[in-house]
């Protein structure tokens, strides 16, 4: 499958998944509120399997599995024997970790949110955790199956399966509100049945998306069987790689614990854990639709070129992928920034909450373009089998986040905690990207990115007036007192209008100044339609 078609397929699936995911969050916020103790308790509990899963996924799957599967595909049986052993090993490890995490639920809740939670809020979060932690096993199997399919150039199922999770969750959350009501922010309002319905629904959605992926796995012609004969599958080499990627991700999770503890103090009346997660969700819409959709096929091709030692082609992939990503990421950043308040209104139960959450979203957006560059640079190290270098530049990033988050904890008022923590993370990400790029150049030689950096600067210059035009539409609508903040639906419509205006101005400027990247993008669309 070509890069253009693969990117289009992933983007379409990701777009549908993100839209239904946003609807899922809107319904959840209607049930538990955007700012309040109950919402933060659920957010903390539901974050536990996600956090552990990130250690497994980013720490092992992305950095280790994809390159190994690409190499195994060249074997006589197309790697089927290796995949059976890998799937078995993954199921055993993830299953064991899930069991341990389940019995450690109270300790995990304390680890993430002991600073600001009352005993009642802590107890509610623990009840939620018992229902949410089983998600970890299904998250792990979903990621393992999906990454293997990606490595074999079967991209669609992994991108489309999460839609099942969102549909199941939306239905379950609506049933919850029919049974128990909405905007239940007070922890005293909750009972075990309410906890079971809400958190059980969240877990059932993850089970559903994994089952769907298993169906597509079988249709792809890959035998689905277990094989416990792990000897000879290269565990020593994989363990060496996994050691560094696991350490990298564990450091990130340690920083996440400090961040959550810092945010938990603001729980109740100010943006805290749940509000920060919702702002991150909006941030992840352009990240997923652009960076993951375009970058994932490039990662597979970069891994192939690295395995074949085609360094010249690999450098060309790096430059091309960053330019293509930059073309879209820059305007996405400007558009979302201009629409920050209306977009935040979609994920809140009032105009005041929207204005409180918007600065958190703006702080996250500072790092969107650098994260696009880092996505390609970091995965290039993984393609060369180098997980040690990413560990070191992640240590630098994590150290900066840790130090300055502690500064925030002791010096910033609680109402600005969430925005400050987000800004610290974004700025540290910029430093990490610069350092990673320098280290990659030292590893494989000159990257030839001079024209690429110049292109990114051009994109930024054109995106600034485009974003200003979009923000002007917000002001003309009445700003904080206008129609865009009247309810969630008007907020979504307002954000769409602002994004459309910003995108149109950006496209016009690219056309007027004859940006060569625009022609490349249009040619790609024509070929895809043909």
UniProtKB/TrEMBL annotation:
InterPro entries on file: Lipid_II_flippase_MurJ/MviN (IPR051050), MurJ (IPR004268)
Q: Which residues form the signal peptide?
A: none
Please state what the protein is called.
Putative peptidoglycan lipid II flippase
Where, subcellularly, is it found? Cell membrane
Q: Which GO terms describe its cellular component?
A: plasma membrane
For membrane topology, the record states: Multi-pass membrane protein
Main localization, broad class = membrane
Which positions, given as ranges, span the membrane?
21-39, 51-70, 82-108, 128-146, 158-181, 193-220, 241-260, 280-300, 321-344, 356-377, 389-412, 418-440, 452-477, 489-513
Example GO molecular function: lipid-linked peptidoglycan transporter activity
**Record keywords:** Cell membrane, Cell shape, Membrane, Peptidoglycan synthesis, Transmembrane, Transmembrane helix
In its keyword annotation, does this UniProt entry include Kinase?
no
Q: Does the keyword field hold Ribosomal protein?
A: no
Which Gene Ontology biological process is one annotated for this entry? Answer: peptidoglycan biosynthetic process
């Amino acid at each position: 499958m070509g890069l253009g078609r693969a990117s289009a397929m992933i983007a379409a699936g990701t777009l549908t998944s993100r839209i239904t995911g946003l609807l899922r969050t809107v319904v959840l916020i209607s049930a538990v509120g955007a700012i309040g103790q109950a919402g933060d308790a659920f957010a903390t509990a539901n974050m536990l399997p996600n956090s552990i899963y990130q250690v497994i996924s980013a720490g092992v799957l992305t950095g280790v599995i994809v390159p190994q599967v690409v190499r195994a595909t060249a074997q006589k049986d197309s790697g089927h024997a290796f995949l059976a052993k890998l799937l078995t090993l993954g199921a055993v490890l993830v299953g064991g970790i899930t069991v341990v995490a389940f019995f450690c639920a109270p300790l995990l809740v304390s680890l993430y949110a002991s600073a600001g939670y009352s005993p009642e809020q802590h107890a509610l979060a623990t009840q939620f955790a018992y229902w949410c932690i089983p998600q970890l096993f299904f998250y792990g199997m979903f990621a393992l199956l999906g990454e293997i399919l990606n490595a074999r150039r079967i991209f669609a199922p992994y991108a489309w399966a999460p839609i099942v999770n969102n549909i199941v969750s939306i239905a379950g959350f609506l049933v919850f509100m029919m049974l128990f009501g909405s905007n239940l922010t007070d922890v005293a309002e909750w009972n075990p049945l309410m906890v079971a319905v809400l958190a059980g629904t969240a877990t059932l959605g993850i089970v559903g998306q994994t089952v769907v992926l298993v169906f597509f796995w079988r249709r792809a012609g890959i035998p689905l069987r277990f094989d416990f004969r792990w000897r000879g599958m290269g565990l020593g080499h994989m363990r060496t790689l996994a050691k560094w990627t696991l350490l990298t991700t564990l450091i990130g999770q340690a920083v996440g614990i400090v961040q959550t503890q810092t945010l938990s103090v603001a729980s109740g009346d100010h943006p805290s854990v749940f509000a920060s997660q919702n702002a991150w969700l909006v941030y992840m819409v352009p990240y997923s639709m652009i960076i993951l959709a375009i970058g994932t096929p490039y990662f597979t091709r970069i891994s192939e070129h690295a395995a074949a030692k085609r360094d010249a082609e690999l450098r060309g992939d790096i430059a091309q992928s960053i330019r293509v990503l930059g073309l879209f990421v820059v305007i996405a950043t400007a558009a979302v920034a201009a629409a920050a308040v209306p977009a935040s209104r979609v994920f809140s139960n009032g105009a005041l909450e929207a204005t409180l959450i918007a600065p958190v979203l703006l702080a996250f957006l500072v790092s969107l373009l650098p994260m696009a560059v880092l996505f390609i640079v970091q995965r290039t190290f993984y393609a060369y089998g180098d997980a040690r270098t990413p560990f070191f530049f992640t240590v630098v990033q994590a150290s900066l986040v840790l130090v300055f988050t502690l500064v925030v904890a002791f010096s910033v008022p609680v109402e600005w905690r969430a925005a400050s923590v987000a800004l610290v993370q974004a700025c540290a990400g910029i430093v990490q990207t610069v350092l990673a790029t320098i280290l990659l150049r030292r590893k494989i030689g000159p990257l030839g990115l001079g024209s690429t950096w110049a292109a990114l600067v051009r994109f930024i210059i054109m995106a600034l007036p485009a974003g200003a035009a979009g923000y002007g539409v917000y002001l003309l609508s009445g700003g904080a007192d206008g129609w865009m903040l009247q309810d969630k639906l008007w907020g979504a419509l307002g954000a769409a209008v602002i994004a459309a205006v910003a995108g149109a101005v950006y496209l016009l400027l690219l056309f007027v100044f004859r940006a060569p990247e625009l022609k490349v993008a249009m040619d790609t669309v024509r070929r895809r339609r043909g």
